[in-house]
Design goal:
It is a single chain. The model has no long low-confidence stretch (mean pLDDT 83). This protein has 2 domains: 22-56; 57-106, no CATH class. It has 3 helices and no strands. The chain is elongated. By secondary structure, the chain is an all-alpha fold. One of its GO terms (cellular component) is Swi5-Sfr1 complex. Component of the SWI5-SFR1 complex, a complex required for double-strand break repair via homologous recombination. Residues 1-29 are annotated as: Disordered.
């Protein structure tokens, strides 16, 4: 059996309208979606304004996000290598952390 599809949290799965209701229901549905998108845009604009007022720049934030992606990629590779080493040694990855000076909470 196929898994149930998932939808974004702010999206409501609506049943198909009955004939004759289709135009009005579709228009109402679209208007609701448009309103939600406008509210989300306003919220994001406020967040951007707040960050700018705190001294952050768009370039700085983009650079920070890029660095976070790079960090996560490196961390994923390290976790994979630790996993392989643990298998070879017959231990858990947790047991390898002290040997390499790693923090379990990182």
């Amino acid at each position: 059996m196929w898994p149930q599809p998932t939808y974004p949290e702010d999206w409501q799965h609506r049943p198909s309208p009955k004939p004759g209701q289709a135009d009005r229901t579709s228009e109402d549905s679209l208007q609701l979606d448009i309103q939600k998108l406008k509210e989300k845009k306003d919220m994001l604009d406020k967040e951007i304004s707040q960050l700018l007022s705190e001294g952050y720049s768009v370039d700085e934030l983009e650079d920070h996000i890029s660095q976070l992606h790079e960090y996560n990629d490196i961390k994923d590779a390290a976790q994979m290598l630790l996993g392989r080493l643990a298998v070879i040694r017959g231990v858990t990855t947790k047991e390898l952390y002290p040997e390499f000076g790693l923090d379990m909470n990182d």
